[in-house]
Sequence to fold (435 residues):
Amino acid sequence: MTVVADPIVELRDWLAANWDADLSLAEWWEHLGCSGWAAPILPVDCYGRGLSRGDALRASRAIAEFGALGAPFGMGVALASPTIATHGTRKQVERYVRAAVTGQRAWCQLFSEPGAGSDLAGLATRAVRDGDVWVINGQKVWTSGAQIADLGMLLARTDPTAPKHQGITWFAIDMHQPGVEIRPLREMTGNAMFNEVFFTDAVVPDDARIGELNNGWTVANTTLLHERSGMGAAAGGRIPFDLALMARPGTVAGDLDRRAGDFVRPVASPTDETRPRTSPATTYIKLAREFGRDTDPVIRQRLAQAHILGELTRFNTERQKAMRAAGRDIPAIANFGKLLMAHILRLNRDLGMEILGARGTLHAYDAPGRATLADAPGGAAAQSITAQVLSAQALPIYGGTDQIQRNIIGERALGLPKEPGDLSRVPFNELPRNG
Fold:
């Protein structure tokens, strides 16, 4: 009988030999990225390890439990790299994927537009060829992290006479050039994660085109698959971490020269995969006890729901892992996962506010404000819950709205008929407005 080596054992041995908290962020990410452990889900010949998504998540946890700093956070590793590994050339893998997994370049996603959000294929940003370059004009919106991005995943219309899904091309665009204007959008959370981006005669070399000309919809679906899989695999609706404490990749953020160890959080417990798992509802259970709400039957019912749905997310991940090991797949599992996670976030939003009561009306938008509220009932946990409350409606919208996920599940997984009136065959320049 052949014994398959556990990749996590190999990873721990590698960390023991290579982790050094005194390395700069750039130096550490160079080691991690070139070893394949920054993005182990990627193929071996594309700076990965060829692991399943489940094993890749285990690897991420193992790095944190070891006390080392994990992979560069953001869209370069999560979205751009797997897309380019799937559709790009060997030269593009070396140019773009290596710089992403080693944190040298940060990416943003330039998909949604003011008139093409849920109907992404209705995008109007134009790319017109001029010799060996493409000239870009148009507008994008809801672009996460554009203000610190070096490169963007750009969808642009390259053939307006083709049906809307067939005249789109996927480009890697340099964000540091004349003709690219970025305007942050301030949210009710107090942050400005999203941006508007305007293109006025910006240029993209043809060798930065990923995939075939006018086949960008197929390439974009690879990007969206990884986006939705990542959202759906999030840890059971737990309270989100503070992005302000994350090590940021790229040349704009200014973190690459900083000490890697300064970004490592204390490990809560020793590495032991046999230890009992905590419930996804643990934080809320503790808070309910602190506020004396743990005997309220309605609160208890919601806590049970939070636990069950968190466990369901975990079971779906394990189920998909088993199916892939058998050479099969679960249709639309990424869409199911994102839809479920959106539901969990809304449930936890309401549960958190029910527990906090009047305390839930207090929220701090900066470090001094958080320090002021540190001694208020609930402490940091209450602050995390109010932050989650303000951001809970984002996931049901970005990455494809809940309604879009249901359409995809109905048509692609359940085989239900499409809505009447097929505009997908009409040339884009003949479509009615918002058609």
